[in-house]
Amino acid sequence: MSKKKIAVLTGGGDCPGLNAVIRAVVKTANYQGYSIYGVENGFKGLVEGTMSELTLGCVSGILPRGGTILGTTNRDNPFRFMIGCDKSGEPLFADKRQEVLENLKKYEIET
């Protein structure tokens, strides 16, 4: 049986304690025998498929660091993802939920 793979994402902007939460999730997942992937730069990372496996070594020493080791943003929404601007400068949006599902499948993320 393969290891269960789960993902963690920080979205909505920065706040104190995110690195502590990430560290706790990685430690707990490791203890349970799961692989954990960090989604980089919030929901944008789900759309673009930018994830990396987080190990105990990755989270060692992150508690005193500010911000989040994964990066975060409060701008991106996979259901209304900005893809550029039209000729008049108005933003253009697209539904990127299919890309999110494909990226989760590519990394074999279950949860």
Automatic annotation (TrEMBL):
Pathway participation: Carbohydrate degradation; glycolysis; D-glyceraldehyde 3-phosphate and glycerone phosphate from D-glucose: step 3/4
Domain Phosphofructokinase: 5-110
GO annotation, cellular component aspect: 6-phosphofructokinase complex
GO biological process: canonical glycolysis; fructose 1,6-bisphosphate metabolic process; fructose 6-phosphate metabolic process
Keyword Magnesium: yes
One MF term in the entry's GO annotations: fructose-6-phosphate binding
Necessary cofactors: Mg(2+)
Pfam families: PFK
Keyword line: Cytoplasm, Glycolysis, Kinase, Magnesium, Metal-binding, Transferase
Cited PANTHER family: ATP-DEPENDENT 6-PHOSPHOFRUCTOKINASE 3, PHOSPHOFRUCTOKINASE
Family according to the record: Belongs to the phosphofructokinase type A (PFKA) family.
Protein's recorded name: 6-phosphofructokinase
Organism: Candidatus Avacidaminococcus intestinavium
Organismal lineage: Bacteria, Bacillati, Bacillota, Negativicutes, Acidaminococcales
